[in-house]
Amino acid sequence: MGVSKDPTTPVPDSPPVLDGASVLDGASVLESASDPDSPFRPEPGDRDLAPQFVLPLVVRVERAAPPPRTDALETAARAVLVMLGDERSAGEGEWARAMRDWQDARIRKVVRRARGAEWRRAEALPGITVTGKTAEVRVFPPVPLDGWPKDLARLQVSGTDLDDPEPPADADSCAPVLWMNPDLDMSAGKAMAQAGHGAQLAWWELSDAERAVWRDAGFPLAVRTADPARWAGLTAGGLPVVRDAGYTEIAPGSCTVVADHPALR
């Protein structure tokens, strides 16, 4: 697993509490958010009046060798963390203004797919490619909701259907795990965006020192579907929870991901 650009980076400035958004411009909310200006709150607020931005992610899906679903989800989650932890996203970095604008509004993530020449054109744009076991995901600095670069805007959103050839191994209980709701049926693209939300929530809940440890280790994590018998306990256990606004695929208020980082237990 790796990152195409892997500078030694300082821990970025602590961001404000965030409103997660899902693939296809859906919005998600943090269940426990109490700040009246939190972008996680489902009610309209000042953040809805701000210019809206989106964090683009592109997954490489070649016809002959699509990545396994779980590997793609984990790589997308790590890509979000790599962008958050990159020195260019903090302080006076070249992406810092876009990252701040993105976080000041409703947080949105959109996952698109590319292959062949499409992927090569995407790689030519400023961003970071993160690799998993076989998956490749490129994350780009936020762009205006209606201002996508043409080489990204032309990529397909829907139809990103991936499968696991074998059931994934049990997650390491000592490592971060993003638990997916066992009762929801989401496309791979939708699930990748939700996994990214969960990873971002965990990142923001950690202290600077805890973030640095996770970043320096390469952001190890697992994405797994929770046992149905455990799901209610996970959502009520005080860990960060992502709820979807229901713009695409699933019902409003659906709890999609629980971010289970050892430091947050």
Automatic annotation (TrEMBL):
Key words of the record: Hydrolase
Reaction(s) this enzyme catalyzes, per UniProt: an N-acyl-L-alpha-aminoacyl-tRNA + H2O = an N-acyl-L-amino acid + a tRNA + H(+)
GO molecular function, one term: hydrolase activity
Source species, domain of life: Bacteria
Region (Disordered): 1-48
A Pfam cross-reference name: PTH2
Biased composition (Basic and acidic residues): 38-48
InterPro entries reported for this sequence: Pep_tRNA_hydro_II_dom_sf, PTH2
EC number(s) recorded for this UniProt protein: 3.1.1.29
Family: Belongs to the PTH2 family.
PANTHER family xref list: PEPTIDYL-TRNA HYDROLASE 2 (PTHR12649), PEPTIDYL-TRNA HYDROLASE 2, MITOCHONDRIAL (PTHR12649:SF11)
Protein name: peptidyl-tRNA hydrolase
Species this chain originates from: Streptomyces marokkonensis
Lineage per the UniProt record: Bacteria, Bacillati, Actinomycetota, Actinomycetes, Kitasatosporales
